[in-house]
Amino acid sequence: MKKFLSLLIVAVLAGTITLGAYKMFLEGETTTVATTSAARPSFIPASYTSTAGYTPANIDFTVAAQKTVNAVVHVKQYGTTRTPRNLMEFLRNGGGSSQERRIQGAGSGVIITEDGYIVTNNHVIAGASELEVTLNNNKSYKAEVIGTSPQSDIALLKIESDEKLTYIPFGDSNAAKIGEWVLAVGNPFNLTSTVTAGIISAKSRDLNEYDDNIQSFIQTDAAINPGNSGGALVNGKGELIGINTAITSQTGSYVGYAFAVPSNNAKKIIDDIIEFGEVQRGILGIRGGNITPKTMEEYDLTESQGVFVAYVDEDSGAKKAGLKEGDLIKEIDGLPIRKFADLTGYVNSKRPDDIIQVKVLRKRRELTLPVTLTKYEIQAYHIKDVGVEVINPPKGYLEKFNLDHGVVINKALSPRMQRYDLKGIVITEVDNKKVNSVLEVKNIIDSKSENEDIIISLVDRNGTKREFIFN
Question: How far is CA 350 from CA 146, 283, 307, 316, 434, in A?
Fold first, then answer.
């Protein structure tokens, strides 16, 4: 009996010690993981900053959609051409007389004022002889082109309506953040407005860094397809932060990459067109590029982001403000500049004579310089379909030919045209329109539809006027 009691006491003591150890070591560790509240995640957060304002559950897309769908329109364009356009068509038609053929294209547009101003893409209306705008309520209006900016792919239209129209107010595209939820609103195929949602994937995107046109698009993964060009990219408040412009796709359909012209740039272009009749483009007056390992080594740079100044133009605002070769531009007006597209995107939202504060790094010392932007003047233009570069005429050059207008061929661009001695010949008209500058030539060419013939009138060195048709 005594032996039994001893064994019982030992068993109880062992059980008590085991239970105590379990409570102390195992249950204590389990409690640390398991005791979570509904307000805290059960995983390790990537950031301790609250992201409650950015979660999909807290975004009401219906509010932004209701504010915007009635302000996005369908834009239908008609163009005319005449046949035969070439000898082949002439022979195929049996030498018949010219005929008109109707061409139709379509896209979207955004009403930006209650009295009927509409912004869209230039490529939606390029080459049109007639435009028709259909609202979300199926009412249709004839539209007039007020002005265009082919370089930025922006066009301003106007319709006349007896009623006040629903419009989308401009937001600040500089304030838009990567990861922010946005809506893409379009009116494709005249099916009334459609809405897709996504986030801002990137900013200051340049789709082709090797061309002369430095772009600065907002990139989004909101679905945008053909027909949505010219539509609205809006934030959660229903404010316009971009004009949907392009997609990157091998098939021509949306695959997750869509691009929009920032609203600050579009608004500046529109204001210029309304106030001045043309875009007033301000420039900093530098040539440079993104930081590379080579420039870091050559100029002993410690920074890997920014815009490196390789050359400062004479008589430019940058020169007068004291910018120098070798400077590294880090900020403009407090906006971080990480690459060249950041710089051009911001400067393109400004006008000539605007003053911007440029922060540069010079020999590891920071300086902030006030720079007055100067007006951009295009000096040369490539008429690619013709194969020549034209420049503004030197002072007194036109008088030699008894001319008061025209541009001068500077060089041939193609091997075929290089066989001819073209330098110095004056082009007086393009498509039967007098031209006074290379900018006017550019505007005429940019307004033409693809594969449309170009009529060039020129005066050779003997003063003989000739006319050629290029197709």
Answer: 21, 9, 18, 16, 31
Q: Is 153 tagged catalytic?
A: yes
* 42 in catalytic set: no
Average pLDDT, the chain: 80
Please identify which residue in the block is written with the tokens 């435009």: 131
Q: Which of 74, 108, 123, 201 is catalytic?
A: 123
pLDDT classification of 457: cutoffs 50, 70, 90: very high
User: What confidence tens digit (pLDDT) does each residue in 98-110 have?
Assistant: 555 566 788 999 9
Catalytic residue among 149, 193, 216, 229: 229
pTM metric for this prediction: 0.67
Contacts of 83 (CB under 8 A, 6+ apart): 89, 93, 98, 99, 101
Residue with tokens 């940019």, as numbered in its chain: 446
> Using CA atoms, how far apart are residues 304 and 216, in angstroms rounded to an integer?
20
Residue 123 falls in the annotated catalytic set: yes
The Cα 251–Cα 258 span in angstroms is 14
Please tell me the distance from the alpha carbon of residue 187 to that of residue 165, in angstroms, as a whole number: 16
